């Protein structure tokens, strides 16, 4: 019929590149931008179908995050603001790798039947688009529109340049029936930040020039968005560098991935910044790390990574909960034991896991790498805090807990307005509005960090000193077929090829506090090696010998 011929006609305009097989990894499809036209077109089709299926607005983001500027990628945001449901990933792979328009259309027809998707009648579909600042994004967005428009009844809204978390936030807000524009995002973040600052004990420290936060924008989208946000705040001093408008190249020697992996200062920073509080975003602003420049003699940073952001958030949340409970008189107040959980991956520094378990007695869960895995686990708690060491993470609040908290706040407001308990309730409510509950968000995370540091009266050094990271090393080994390495137990144990795991255990045993694992990257043709041990020299040796096992 009409639909089939439209699909055949438009698909013929975007043939897949020869000999390239793409897979919907942890972060969607990612490759050199020149290889992506066909994939983006087809993901446009998929997004439209997903919208028909869910009867909600779906997001489609063009970004390759922290990867080099010539790469690009495409991923889909589901109605809850999270990643595309995992049971649709095999369909994504099938669509994108179909060799001819005829095959493509037959896969689509088959899938529509299987999923019982209704394309006719009163139902409609809508896809919202966003892209990062990569030059290739402009034309790839047009290609995505072609894909969406090749499904009859699907509408498309293009929001231009956005951070990845902004688009996820907008999709989540939209499906909850809330205000969902980019402006609403800025308003919600800035008003909840102001609310938190107003609840700071002893009032807000006036932000003197030498207390300002200096932010590395990775020459990506985050810097310009942070400037907009900053203009809506009057109680935070921020200087943004590496905004991408001074001919700096996206992610080159800058950005959260560089700072966290290399532990070196990003371009644009130097001896003038020794001791200052600095932060770094990645190319699409879903990762955040803090750092300070150690000395003017070396290029090394004192890194405050995702694990420490997680620890700071966990400290704050548990502290507010205990204030709230302290005032609870079991006779007159309803009490609610919120389940708080912390989710990390095997990349979490061992010192952070020890710290979280010992000092805060929190439940710590490990998952494989990739936001979808952490997010899923965190969603099982009333307050679930998840972070990857690389700086991607957020806090999730359950609906049940939030409605209890709101009722509690109202009750406290009527009987003890302005009490410590009520302030704690208001702080937690403000956190739930400030933090992006769709996905990790460098901008909202940064505002939460800043407000907690103010609340505690902590410097970045005090925060960094919560515990001392064990020395660690990450290496990558180029391989022909990374799928040859198969892991289990949240990627901490290699089950294939046989023998490697025993060899890793034997190497690790040689070093005090040694720990090492390998896993296939989800984004590059490499095997990643991680090691930690009690000294830098030891850990470098350990990482190198484990890397040799892979070669
Ligand atoms: C992707 C993931 C990130 C993960 C990284 C690991 C999402 C949205 N992003 O960027 O969470 O840390 O991949 O990369 O899930 P790797 O597999 O190459 O080590
Ligand atoms: Zn990113």
Automatic annotation (TrEMBL):
One of its GO terms (biological process) is carbohydrate metabolic process. Residues 489-547 form the Alpha-D-phosphohexomutase C-terminal domain. It is an enzyme of class 5 (isomerase). It catalyses: N-acetyl-alpha-D-glucosamine 1-phosphate = N-acetyl-D-glucosamine 6-phosphate. Gene3D superfamilies: Alpha-D-Glucose-1,6-Bisphosphate, subunit A, domain 3, Alpha-D-phosphohexomutase, C-terminal domain. Belongs to the phosphohexose mutase family. This is Phosphoacetylglucosamine mutase.
């Amino acid at each position: 019929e009409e639909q089939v011929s439209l699909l055949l006609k438009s698909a013929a305009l975007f043939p897949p590149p020869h000999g390239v097989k793409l897979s919907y990894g942890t972060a969607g499809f990612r490759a050199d931008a020149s290889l992506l036209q066909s994939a983006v077109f087809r993901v446009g089709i998929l997004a439209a179908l997903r919208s028909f299926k869910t009867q909600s607005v779906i997001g489609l983001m063009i970004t390759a995050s922290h990867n080099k500027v010539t790469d690009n990628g495409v991923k889909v945001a589901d109605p809850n603001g999270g990643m595309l449901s995992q049971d649709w990933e095999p369909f994504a792979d099938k669509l994108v790798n179909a060799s001819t328009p005829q095959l493509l259309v037959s896969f689509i027809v088959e899938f529509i039947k299987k999923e019982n998707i209704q394309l006719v009648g009163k139902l409609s579909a809508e896809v919202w688009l966003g892209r990062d600042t990569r030059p290739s994004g402009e034309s790839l967005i047009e290609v995505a529109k072609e894909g969406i428009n090749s499904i009859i009844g699907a509408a498309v809204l293009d929001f231009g340049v956005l951070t990845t978390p902004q688009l996820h936030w907008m999709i989540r807000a939209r499906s909850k029936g809330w205000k969902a524009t980019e402006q609403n995002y800025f308003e919600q973040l800035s008003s909840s930040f102001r609310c938190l600052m107003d609840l700071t004990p002893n009032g807000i420290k006036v932000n003197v020039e030498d207390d300002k936060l200096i932010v590395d924008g990775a020459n990506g989208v985050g810097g310009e968005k942070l400037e907009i946000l900053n203009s809506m705040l009057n109680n935070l001093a921020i200087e943004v560098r590496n905004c991408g408008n001074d001919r700096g190249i996206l992610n080159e020697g800058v950005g959260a991935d560089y700072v966290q992996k290399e532990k070196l200062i990003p371009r644009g920073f130097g001896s003038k910044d020794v001791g200052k509080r600095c932060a770094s975003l990645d190319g699409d602003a879903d990762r955040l790390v803090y750092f300070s420049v150690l000395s003017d003699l070396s290029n090394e940073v004192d890194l405050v990574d995702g694990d420490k952001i997680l620890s700071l958030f966990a400290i704050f949340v548990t502290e507010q909960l205990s204030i709230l409970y302290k005032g609870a008189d079991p006779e007159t107040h309803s009490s609610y034991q919120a389940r708080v959980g912390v989710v990390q991956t095997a990349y979490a520094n061992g010192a952070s896991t020890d710290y979280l378990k010992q000092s805060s007695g929190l439940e710590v869960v490990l998952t494989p790498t990739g936001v979808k895995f952490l997010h899923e686990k965190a969603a099982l708690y009333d307050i679930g805090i998840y972070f990857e060491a690389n700086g991607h993470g957020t806090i999730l609040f359950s609906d049940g807990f939030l409605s209890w908290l709101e009722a509690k706040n109202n009750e406290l407001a009527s009987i003890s307005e302005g009490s410590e308990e009520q302030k704690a309730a208001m702080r937690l409510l403000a956190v739930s509005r400030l933090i992006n509950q769709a996905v990790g968000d460098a901008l909202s995370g940064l505002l939460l960090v800043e407000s907690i540091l103010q609340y505690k009266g902590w410097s970045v050094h005090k925060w960094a000193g919560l515990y001392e990271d064990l020395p660690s090393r990450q290496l990558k080994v180029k391989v022909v077929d990374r799928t040859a390495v198969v892991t289990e137990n949240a990627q901490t144990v290699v089950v294939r090829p046989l023998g490697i795991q025993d060899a890793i255990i034997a190497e690790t045993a040689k070093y005090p506090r040694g720990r090492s694992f390998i896993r296939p990257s989800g984004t590059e043709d490499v095997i990643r090696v991680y090691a930690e041990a009690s000294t830098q020299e030891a850990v470098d040796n350990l990482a190198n010998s484990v890397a040799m096992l892979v070669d």
